[in-house]
Design goal:
By secondary structure, the protein is an alpha+beta fold. About 30% of the residues lie in helices and about 20% in strands. The strands form four sheets. Strands 6-5-8-9-3-2-1-4-7 form a nine-stranded mixed beta sheet, with no helix packed on it.
Length: about 575
């Protein structure tokens, strides 16, 4: 149920001040003060056939013309096709003179943000216009620039962190663009990604295939990752191009158990790695930790915040990292599953290998525990997945960049936890990786699926005209090392990159001859499916059989194990 405060905020919905005073069939236009572009967020149906719509101006006595043809205000005009950034010259003549604008249409929502921005929060105003909606949701907020190397003094296309407020300056939750109901939002510029879509698409991919953390069984609204929506952004009246409005990774998203403010008892914990320090990659750990600090060896505390709980509790993460760094091989293999949520780590490893996620092998990771009083296993979620699928984390050329982008080369995780899990095959981890990879190769990791996932948004953005506006705004900028944005070339690159990457991984993760062999006859066949069914229905009680039937290593014999055998049989049949 919405709170009264929430309803009061929604009551603030009002028409966005239309800087040129021009509407199309009642839909507002937003003006760029530099280029005199007018942009209208239009429903998809307007792009399906030639458009005829009314054009009006709120200036009394104004005279309108479109492409040189005089149009009486409030009457219909035959625009024709509006796709792919087709623009229309609109002139408005009033007693004050004549103003000329270039009208274009977008399939995407339009977001405007106004304020003074730097690395600290300052008052701001956020407005959201959805396609085909004649009014905008306008909200007070506080906002700042966010990011690391993308937020340097010389940067131009900034990311923003936005927190929504009510008129009294209090936190308020609002659902934006079909995403979660919250006050905490990120505007992701994708500025190091020459396709501008990689982070958005890769996060969707992660959510679609990754194993659920153990506590999701009873936290059914939890999300391991974030959702996002494409939008076109104006900052202080200037067009800033294509962005993704993103949900944050936080306690609410992961449904971690709340800190008990009455008893001061800590339950859920959330940390983020923010550097490439050795402790982050668990090769070593500091000699000790300080619960009065919100940082530890390249990790930063995200929940609960130190101001709310002081002292915090670094012990679970410290102990786990210390175990990875210093345990014997025997102890590591025997006990690693007591420290980490291995099915999620397995899928995180696969995500990094599939996409060559070079910037997510230590840095750009969230680690979390649902409730330290119930289960101390640590799980993981990725962040900032833009340096993936043939994209380096900087566009300055180097030998490391060429190696990292190459789909035909292996990728070392350079993280001691993953190094030990795979090299020692701890608890059958690497075996589970191989089997899981081949299970996914017939579905989420198929070439057709990956090509569609990455090229469909580029096709949509081209039809919308967004990528042409993005090129005009940012090609040749220092944020991308003065390179030209070429979305057609990126589309071709992504299609060919996955073709080569999957061919390489098929060899790297070659199935052993006895993969999926539950009953011990040497091959995966219908008998193994029956053996799994017998374990599931408790018709078989042999503990060794149950262990072999848990093919994916989840600790439970279920339909997922059955599906893996089917996938293995299908893959072998088609070879």
């Amino acid at each position: 149920m919405r709170t009264l405060l929430h309803c009061l905020v929604l009551a603030l919905v009002a028409a966005l001040p239309c800087q040129a005073g021009i509407t199309i069939d009642g839909l507002p236009t937003v003006a760029d003060s530099n280029s005199h572009m007018l942009l209208c967020s239009a429903p998809a149906s307007w792009f399906d056939k030639p458009l005829t719509a009314t054009i009006a101006c709120d200036e009394p006595g104004a005279k309108l013309a479109v492409d040189g043809t005089t149009v009486a205000g409030g009457t219909a005009y035959a625009f024709g096709s509006i796709a792919q950034n087709r623009t229309f010259t609109v002139t408005v003549t009033t007693a004050a003179g004549t103003a000329t604008h270039q009208l274009a249409f977008t399939l995407l929502p339009i977001i405007t943000i106004d304020g003074d921005f730097n690395s600290d929060y300052h008052p701001a105003t956020l407005a959201v216009i959805e396609p085909g909606v004649p009014t905008a949701l306008t909200l007070p907020a506080k906002a700042k620039y966010r990011g690391g190397i993308t937020n340097q003094p010389h940067s131009h296309k900034h990311n923003f962190h936005v927190k929504l407020l009510d008129e009294q300056g209090n936190k308020v939750n609002v659902p934006l663009l079909g995403l979660r109901d919250d006050n905490n939002w990120i505007l992701d510029a994708g500025q190091i990604d020459m396709a501008r879509i990689r982070n958005h698409v890769a996060m969707d991919l992660w959510r679609d295939f990754s194993a659920k953390p153990y506590h999701f069984a009873h936290e059914t609204s939890a999300v391991n990752g974030s959702h996002s929506a494409y939008a076109e952004l104006f900052v202080n009246g200037n067009y800033h191009g294509l962005y993704s409005l993103m949900e944050a990774i936080d306690r609410k998203q992961l449904q971690l158990k709340k800190f008990d403010s009455r008893t001061k008892e800590i339950h859920g914990l959330l940390w983020k790695s923010v550097s490439w320090d050795s402790p982050v990659r668990m090769y070593d750990v500091p000699d000790t930790y300080n619960n009065l600090l919100d940082t530890l060896g390249g990790m930063t505390l995200k929940y609960p915040e130190l101001d709310d709980v002081s002292p915090t509790d670094w012990e679970p993460l410290y102990s786990a990292a210390h175990f990875v760094a210093s345990s014997s091989n025997r102890d590591f293999c025997s006990h690693v599953g007591e420290y980490f949520d291995l099915p999620v780590l397995r899928d995180y490893y696969l995500l990094c290998q599939l996409l060559k996620a070079i910037d997510n092998r230590g840095k750009n990771m969230y680690w979390f525990i649902h409730d330290i009083g119930a289960d101390r296993r640590i799980s993981v979620t990725p962040w900032d997945l833009d340096a993936t699928a043939g994209q380096y984390y900087t566009d300055w050329n180097s030998s490391d960049k060429r190696r990292s982008e190459n789909p035909n080369l292996a990728m070392d995780m350079k993280h001691y936890l993953f190094d030990r899990l795979t090299s020692l095959n701890a608890g059958g981890f690497y075996d589970h990786v191989v089997v899981r990879y081949h299970q996914l190769r017939s579905s989420t990791f198929s070439l057709a699926s990956l090509r569609q996932r990455y090229t469909a948004p580029l096709d949509m953005l081209k039809r919308s005209g967004t990528i042409l506006r993005e090129q005009a705004r940012w090609s040749g900028d220092s944020d991308i090392a003065y390179l030209e944005l070429d979305f057609d070339a990126q589309r071709k690159l992504l299609r060919s990159w996955f073709d080569k990457r999957l061919a390489f991984l098929d060899e790297q993760f070659a199935l052993p001859a006895n993969a999926g062999d539950v009953d011990g006859n040497g091959i995966a066949d219908i008998a193994d499916m029956n053996a799994i069914l017998n374990v599931m229905t408790k018709k078989a009680s042999d503990p060794d059989l149950a262990l072999r039937a848990d093919i994916d290593g989840s600790g439970i014999v279920d339909i997922d194990d059955l599906n893996i055998v089917v996938a293995i049989m299908v893959r072998k049949f088609h070879r």
